[in-house]
Amino acid sequence: MSFYKHHVFFCLNKREAPENCCACHGAEDMQQYAKKRIKELKLSGPGNVRINKAGCLDRCEEGPVLVVYPDETWYTYVDKEDIDEIINEHLVNGRVVERLRI
Length: 102
Ligand code: FES
Hints:
This protein is an alpha+beta fold. It is built from two helices and four strands; from the N terminus they run βαβββα. It is 26% helix and 21% strand.
């Protein structure tokens, strides 16, 4: 059994324009938002959910990206509604959000 039920990594890598990067698409705000929501929902901690920052995950052109382990499920997102859907569907109910999956 894994230490966390769901371990989520948000790429927060920054690059100078005109290069693409996840931080160029609001990744830092969305990672902070996800962390806050997981705490509010009392889902954080061992045996539950951990939201982590990551460097470049090498899927820059599909970004912004996050990955959920141990499920090996990759997502892209645009806004807080997308993050809420990933939290409510995947992290709470164990259902992959196909529309955001990459
Ligand atoms: S900058 Fe996010 S995957 Fe490379």
